[in-house]
Write a structure and sequence with these properties.
alpha+beta, seven-stranded mixed beta sheet, Ornithine Decarboxylase, Chain A, domain 4, four-stranded antiparallel beta sheet, 19 strands, 3 domains, Aspartate Aminotransferase, domain 1, globular, Aspartate Aminotransferase, domain 2, disordered C terminus
Length: about 500
């Protein structure tokens, strides 16, 4: 195939050149009806390209349509057998993969307990039973690592009837699992491996980055183009290879979840990024890796800041590390990551990608350059000086690894959709959660529906909230109340 092609971009160019006009949605009619303030802020061009993929440009059911051609180009570019685009993010793609592999299987699905909230949503939506794999844990730093092949093997021994396994790699911190080892464990049992690689869309395009999931033997790999690529938010691709997952059924599962009015802008940007990576990915990502190392060295030289690297690798830690993710420990400053992120946003107008009780994360991309690195480093230098005047951060109750791994006593779907009631935090310990509660970012739920709450986790979440933790999905944003499965079945909230 000719990798210089961009079918959807070419189709949009033709759409503009022919001055086509549709008496069909979208109703703004190429921006003619849009509010003036909207066009002042957004410009008019996005509306000129906002056409229905099923009408204005393409129909997935039409042989040799623009979208299937764009997906085939992507599959060839990365070496997958099939690739499918999604305009509803990897949140949709990973749910579709879960349904395709385990949707009607009573054995459930092996899952890393460090999975994203979209995976938990997939459990609620599909009814799939989770068979949790406990991540490896750095107790001192309160930090989890992806599970090892040995842990996955142990999970298979405990749940031999599970339909497959789903592992997150890279994590939002850039830490990566031994995917090849895990794939071998799964394939020895004839079971498929799904990799939630939302943070790894760039991995196929440079040899100095961690191993791409499909090269390591995964059967399905889900990536978010907007995270580490150059697409719009919501742009996702899921790749398939081998005969353990039916790609036609996978596509049908995605079709159940996706919108019938996909945004062509998102599709077109995915295709354009694919061409850019094929033609210049090695150069662009190579430059970025060098720039990221330069940033790491400069930040490491700032007193009070510790750029984590060796701590994230090794026998009891992660297998590989994406060094474009610069994880900075601020503990030596006597402040919290939450305080640092708030100060950087207010005083430097700089946003960081992740914060917790002792860390902040800066994500580098191929769009960065010396100017942006200088801005990051200079902002951190200012932060260190300012931190001397920060108030002591509120104390966070940090659970032990045993305490933070809650007991699953009910399926997430049954707990979420069953009869529930709201109880005070003082009465919530011992009750079964009917909601997920997720520090965000990175978006890994501390509480999953169907898990039994304990006082240690309640104290962690409440103290974290007081210290600046963001918990966007809790029913009661103050955490004074918790949604739990009703004990009195006549009580419904």
């Amino acid at each position: 195939m000719d990798q210089s092609e961009t079918p959807l971009l070419t189709a949009l160019e033709q759409y503009h050149r022919l001055d086509r006009y549709g008496f069909s949605p979208p109703g703004h009619r190429q921006g003619r009806g849009v509010d003036e303030h909207v066009t002042r802020v957004l410009g008019g061009d996005p509306f000129r390209s906002d056409v229905l993929a099923s009408g204005g440009l393409d129909d997935r059911r039409t042989r040799n349509g623009y979208l299937p051609r764009a997906e085939a180009l992507m599959a060839e570019a990365v070496g997958a057998e099939r690739a499918f685009f999604s305009t509803c993010g990897s949140s949709l793609s990973v749910k579709a993969a879960m349904m395709a592999v385990a949707g009607d299987d009573p054995g459930g699905l092996l899952l890393g307990r460090d999975s994203h909230k979209s995976v938990v949503a997939g459990l609620v939506f599909s009814g799939v039973t989770p068979r949790w794999i406990t991540p490896r844990w750095d107790d001192e730093m309160h930090f989890s690592h992806p599970p090892s092949p040995e842990q996955v093997e142990q999970a298979w021994e405990s749940h031999p009837d599970a339909a497959g396994a789903l592992i997150v790699s890279p994590s939002p911190y850039g830490t990566c699992a031994d995917i090849a080892g895990i794939a071998e464990v799964c394939h020895d049992r004839g079971k498929p491996l799904i990799i939630d690689e939302a943070w790894g869309a760039h991995l196929p395009f440079h040899e100095d980055l961690p191993t791409w999931a499909m090269d390591a033997g995964a059967d399905v790999c889900v990536v978010s183009v907007h995270k580490m690529g150059a697409g719009f938010e919501q742009g996702s691709v899921y790749h398939v290879q081998g005969d353990l997952v039916d790609s036609v059924h996978l596509s049908a599962c995605a079709d159940l979840l996706t919108t019938t009015s996909p945004n062509v802008l998102i599709y077109a940007a995915i295709g354009g990024w694919r061409r850019q990576m094929v033609e210049r990915g090695t150069e662009l990502l190579g430059n970025t890796l060098g720039l990221a190392q330069h940033a790491r060295d400069r930040i490491s030289a700032i007193d009070g800041l510790d750029v984590l690297e060796d701590r994230l690798l090794g026998e009891e830690a992660s297998h590989e590390l994406d060094r474009l993710q610069i994880l900075v420990d601020v503990c030596a400053l006597g402040v919290s990551g939450y305080q640092c992120a708030d100060w950087l946003r207010e005083h430097c107008h700089v946003d960081v990608g992740m914060t917790d009780h002792r860390r902040i994360l800066a994500t580098m991309s191929m769009s960065d350059n010396e100017t942006t690195v200088n801005r990051l480093v200079e902002s951190l230098e200012r932060l260190v000086l300012a931190a001397e005047s920060f108030e002591s951060p509120p104390k966070i109750h940090l659970p032990t690894p045993d305490e933070i791994q809650l007991e699953s006593v009910m399926s997430p779907r049954e707990a979420f959709f069953g009869r529930t009631e709201m109880v005070s935090g003082d009465r919530a310990a011992g009750r079964v959660a009917a909601e997920q509660i997720t520090p965000y970012p990175p978006g890994i739920p501390t509480v999953v529906p169907g898990e039994r709450l304990d006082q240690s986790v309640i104290d962690y979440l409440r103290s974290g909230l007081d210290a600046g933790m963001n918990l966007p999905d809790a029913t009661d944003s103050s955490l004074q109340l918790f949604r739990v499965v009703a004990q009195d079945r006549s009580s419904v909230s």
